[in-house]
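3.2 Worked example (two chains)
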Amino acid sequence: MYGGSGQNSAVRRSGQFGARVTGLKSPDRWTWPTRGLLWIDVAWVIFALANLAAMFIFATWETVPFHFIWVSLTILYGFRVWRMRPTLSVLGAIIVATAAVLIVDVMRGTQPLDEVTEVPLMSAMFLAMVWHARRRLAVIDEMKRVSEENLRLLERERRFIQNASHELRTPITVAIGHAELLQRATDQSTMAADARVVTEELMRLRRLADRLLLLAAADDPDFLHKKRIEVEPVLVEALHRWSPTPRHWRLGATDEAVVNADADRLALALDALVENAVKHTTPDDWIELSVRRNHGVEIRVADSGSGIPVEDLDRIFERFGRAESSARAGNGGVGLGLAIVKTIAEAHGGSVRVRSTVGKGSEFEVVLAQAQDGDSASSAR
C-alpha cells in the first residue's frame, strides 16, 4: 500500500529534507576513468604535463612547477573524490613522474639529492587529505541515507493518517445516524440522555477524523482552491454560526480587505480560532472578531478569557500541543485546532501570531497578503 508512491514522494521532496549539497562527488557514482571523465580531469592532466616539462626544462626552478603539480592534484581531488583504485593509480603516476624528473636533475647537478625527499612528503600529505575526504563523504552518504529513510517513514505516516481518517469517518457517520434515531425514538429521559452522550462523543470523533484528514492533506497540490474573497462576510458568517453559544459576541473593526484565498479553508481556520476562544472563556466573557489592513490583512479573534501562560505560547500551534493550564482545566480538544490554523495560514503564504495575558485574555491574528488587482480569480495551490 505504501511502496511505490511513498518512494516517489520521498524522491520528489528530498530537496526539502535531504542532506546538504556539497561539492564532493560520490566515488561510487563515477567509474573513472572508463566513464564519467570530466573536463576538469582533462584540464588537470594537461596542466600537470606542462609543469613536468617545465621541471625538466627549467631545472634550477623545478620547485615551483613541482609544487604546482601536487597542489593542483589536491585541489582536483577536493572536487572529484575518485574511487581508491584510480586515486592510487594517479598518485603512483605522479610519484614516478616527479621523482624521475628530480633524479635526472640531481644527476645533472642542478638540484641536491635531498630534494627527492619532497616526493614521499607530498605523497603522505595527499594521502592524509584523501583519508579526510573519504571520511567526510562517508558521513554525507550516511546522512543522505538516514534522510531518505526518514522521508519514507514520514510519507507512510502521512498516508496512514489519511487512510485511517477516511476509514474512521464511515463507521462514525453510520453510528451517529443510529444514535440520533435512537435519541428521537425513545421516550425515556435516561435513554435519551445516554443516546445524546453517544451522539456528542461520536461527533467529537468525527471532528477529530476530519482534522487529521485535513492535516494529512496539507501537502497535496490541490489543498487550496483560491479565489478573491472579501474578509468581512467571512467574519459575519462565523458570528452567525457561533452566536447560539452563550458569550458576548462582538464584531470589531472591519476594514475593507480582499484576499486571494480558499474561502472554505479560511472559514475553517476562523472556526478553529473561535472554538479555542470559547474553550477559554465563560458566558460572561466577550469574544471579538475583526479585520484590519496594515502591512497585510490581519484577521483577529480576541477574547477576555483566562489567557495563556507565556511558557505555553511556543507549543500551542504544534500538533497535539496543548497548554498545561488547558489540560489541567479539562478543556475539550486534543490540540489540533491551532495546528490547523497554522497549517492553513502558511498554505496561503501567511502566518499566525498570538498575544496573551493570563487572567485578561488572548488575541490571535491570521496575517494574509492583500489581494492585488492582477491576482487570478481562481487558482489551486
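3.2.1 Second chain
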Amino acid sequence: MKIGRLAMAALPLLLAGGGCAPVATQAGGADAAPDPAHSSRNALDWAGTYKGVLPCADCEGIETIVTLGGDGAYSTRSRYLGKGDGNSFSTQGRFTWDDRGGSILLSGDQPARYLVGENRLIRLAQDGSRITGALADHYVLVKMDESITEKYWKLVELHGKPVPALDREPHFILSAQDNRISGYAGCNGFGGSYTLDEKTSRIRFGQMASTMMACDKGMDVEQGFHDVLRQADNYSLNGDSMTLNRGRMAPLARFEAVYLQ
C-alpha cells in the first residue's frame, strides 16, 4: 500500500502549508525535559546528512534529505514521489535548538521541527509535539554514511553546465577494498586507481584505462569527464550531491548519488 493512501485515511494535520505538505496526527504534550548536560545537542554527533520518505496527503511520499552543519546552517532537498518531473525543491538557512537541546527548528517560509536522536531525525508537529497514528514510524530520517566510496555517482554537471541526456548515464564508483575507480564516461567504460583522504576531502585519480569505441554522441561529455578526473584534487560533499574541484576554483563537475530501489 502506498504511503499516500494510508495518509489520506488518517486525520490530516499539515505540518506546513501547501497541498503536498506531510500529513500527520499529533500527540498532546511534549516529552519530559532531559538533563541539559546530556541533551542531544551536547551528547550526540548530530551534524551530518539524514534521509527518509515522509508521508504525503496526495502523493506517494516526500523523499526528504536534511543536512545539518556544525555551524548552525542547514540545507534540505525534497522530491514529491509519483508527481513527475519538476517536483523537487531545495532550501537552505539556519536552524536553532530548543531550550532543552533536544529538538531543532529549521527556519524559512515553511519552518520544520525535528527531534534529534541517535543517528536520526524525527519530524515533529509545528507545536513541537510528537506525531502519532498509523504513519508515525514514517516521520523518521536516518543519518547517512558520509563516505563517498561504494556509491554510484551520476554525472549531472560539467563546468556548471547540465550534462545532456545520453543513451547511458555517465557515472563512476569508487571501490574501497582496492582503491579502484570504475565507470562510464559517455561512450566508453573506464577504470583506474585513486587515492583518498576523507578527513581532508582530498582525492587524486591515477591513469585511466578505457575501451576505444567511437560514438555518435557523448564524446564531448567523455572528454570533459576525463579532463575532470585528471585535474581534480579535492571534493565537496552535501548529502547526495558531490563536486570534484581543483584547489579553490569553481567546481569542475557535480555528481549525484543514485540508489537502487
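3.3 Remarks
The mean pLDDT is 86.
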